[in-house]
Amino acid sequence: RINGERLWSSLMELAQIGATAKGGVKRLALTDLDKQGRDLVVSWGKQAGMSITIDQIGNVFMRRAGRNSALPPVMSGSHIDTQPTGGKFDGNYGVLAALEVVRTLNDHHIETEAPIEVAFWTNEEGSRFVPVMMGSGVFCGAFTLETAYAAKDTEGKTVGDELERIGYKGTEVPGQHPIGAYFETHIEQGPVLEDADKVIGVVPGVLGLSWYDCVVTGMEAHAGPTPMGLRKDALQVATGIMQEVVNIGNRYPPYGRGTVGMVQVFPNSRNVIPGEVKFSIDLRNVSSELLDTMHQEILAFVEQTSNNSGLHISVERVSYYPPCPFHSDCVDAVRNATATLGCSTMDVVSGAGHDAIYTARLAPSGMIFVPCKDGISHNEIEDAKPEHLAAGCNVLLHAMLAKAQR
Amino acid sequence: RINGERLWSSLMELAQIGATAKGGVKRLALTDLDKQGRDLVVSWGKQAGMSITIDQIGNVFMRRAGRNSALPPVMSGSHIDTQPTGGKFDGNYGVLAALEVVRTLNDHHIETEAPIEVAFWTNEEGSRFVPVMMGSGVFCGAFTLETAYAAKDTEGKTVGDELERIGYKGTEVPGQHPIGAYFETHIEQGPVLEDADKVIGVVPGVLGLSWYDCVVTGMEAHAGPTPMGLRKDALQVATGIMQEVVNIGNRYPPYGRGTVGMVQVFPNSRNVIPGEVKFSIDLRNVSSELLDTMHQEILAFVEQTSNNSGLHISVERVSYYPPCPFHSDCVDAVRNATATLGCSTMDVVSGAGHDAIYTARLAPSGMIFVPCKDGISHNEIEDAKPEHLAAGCNVLLHAMLAKAQR
Ligand SMILES: NC(=O)NCCC(=O)O
Ligand SMILES: NC(=O)NCCC(=O)O
């Protein structure tokens, strides 16, 4: 069993770096605060006897030797960067749970056949630099190191320069680092576990995701003198599409998701008929087939809406992550661990992307979810219970031990 | 007949004050530029032999004596302040057309029984200071001088101080100034005349107007991990109401109008289900009964939507102007003038509010519309044809002469 108090106090200590007045954390990727956070975690890793490797995109791997150093390590981790108004647990829990596993093995002088590694990946959040999940994305070859280095924040500072500045531009070529299996513990970021009153979510995979930008172009005109029949009201046309986005999500339960999160209306004046409306579309589902069906349906609906209204409508896909089923070896390892420990459990497909969807392209991967209060994350009021965090960490310990052969 | 070239060249000269690079005018109420514009128009008035009176809210009255100075004047005017990205014609045309009438009477040594007055009202646009139609509103007692004086711009400067500063805080008590009849020429600000290929709009009245602020409160949550059934999506609920606003406008032709012009979504992030949506509602119609029916329908729809969705929705009326039918004497004077002059004409109910809706509370009032290009106003590309502007001014001349008794 892991030491839940030690895990909790490490979480609280790390959360001091970038702590906000409202009880959250603001520790954006590659800032001075990120450097402080990284330094603290690395110092803990060294205290636990681990050796440190940093790759060229700043991913950090902390290694506890196994009996057989030729075997690829069983790895666990997540990220320590946060949203601008982020919480104490998102990402940080996954890293410190992995560290707690190593501390526990040390306490009990347990050797493993394969090495054990604790990883944290650069810029998972994507708040300061896009794309999201940058470190794991470069690691698995989803995009190049050059692309990542060139990414700029709003002040024009680049990832390459900022990595150099904070001293975390390592030398290892990303993706050269071997992985035998990868586990990631994370708060659920949704309400399902809490709603079902379960402690552990076994994560069979992650929903695929399509993001779009949609622009409806009408004709700006005065709301008073323009009769209804002579209008080209971009908002009236846009709201029809926004509703269909949600309808499409509803049409493919249980994993279909359809969300419009961002809307901009021009000129956005009380007595002017909107001339242009821009909005985002977020579609998700568990299989490529279902996600593709949803994709076709929104495109067809937009075309039909454009024909019916006579307004120009553009819809462009700006991101796509295919659904990511996790490897049965890892999913089973997690499931068996919950059985061994007697945890209350259910399967929860991850609705949000995580570094594990990228590691899954290179090695068997799996995830463990614990409940978070009201399903809230990416928010300073994000909260989780110490006993749930400890339970997730115990499941991680047993799953890793199963893969690393005690 | 008036002198169309003189009218046009005065319009172009006034439009130099605050001219924008895109061919429009930016001359916000009570700025230095407004002072320059006022000074120019007043100098023209003096050159035309008129005496000047300024009231405490800065409304300017320029008087051409009649044979019988005891008779209340036949007045015409509008405003010379503009929107931040305004055009050359909105308001300015109404003032300079009235001035052109006086210049024409002078050219032809025509005396009238009643005095003739040219008026311009303070801060009609409401862009720098709210409420709109401030000068005429104070004049007719819709709100107090104190309320108007206290209105602040975004820098905290008040109407009272700015009137003083530019030298247009007069001494006459607003509303004390007698009016026998009031006419206002204006660009239509809509597409109806152009669409029907007519030159003069006889304006039987102005639509009543109800403005509302609506706020839908849901629950902000991550778009990925939150199943459709566990969402409180404020935008999905809001779009239903937005569509009903337009439906209500369509349900009461030909004068019903329903517009949502302004929308704010919180937190407005691509992968966050909106937790709050604020938007404006603009309903208009020609009679109090119809406007009240529309008012009841939107309130009922909002209540039903709140009950069905379980989300809290507030809707608050923030402005109301009752429908304003113009006095038949004035409408007939305009109609007869178009007949005398042989203009192509039609009735066009004004969809937008004008100073004339306030003068109408004190004296018989009427309006004359001329077409504007593509119905566009409140825009730097606002445009109108010299021959249409001249035609409207001729109609004004004849209507005023009919009321002032040549
Ligand atoms: N974990 C997480 O918030 N990922 C962001 C990308 C997404 O919206 O799934
Ligand atoms: N003329 C004009 O634009 N008035 C503004 C108030 C309205 O929206 O009717």
From TrEMBL, chains A, B:
The keyword Hydrolase is annotated on this UniProt entry: yes
An example molecular function term from Gene Ontology annotations: hydrolase activity
Pfam families assigned to the protein according to its UniProt record, in alphabetical order: M20_dimer (PF07687), Peptidase_M20 (PF01546)
Coiled-coil spans in chain: none
Residues spanning the signal sequence: none
InterPro entries: Amidase_Cbmase (IPR010158), Bact_exopeptidase_dim_dom (IPR036264), Peptidase_M20 (IPR002933), Peptidase_M20_dimer (IPR011650)
Annotated Peptidase M20 dimerisation domain residues: 208-305
Keywords: Hydrolase
PANTHER family reported for this sequence: ALLANTOATE AMIDOHYDROLASE, ALLANTOATE DEIMINASE-RELATED
Family: Belongs to the peptidase M20 family.
Protein name: Zn-dependent hydrolase
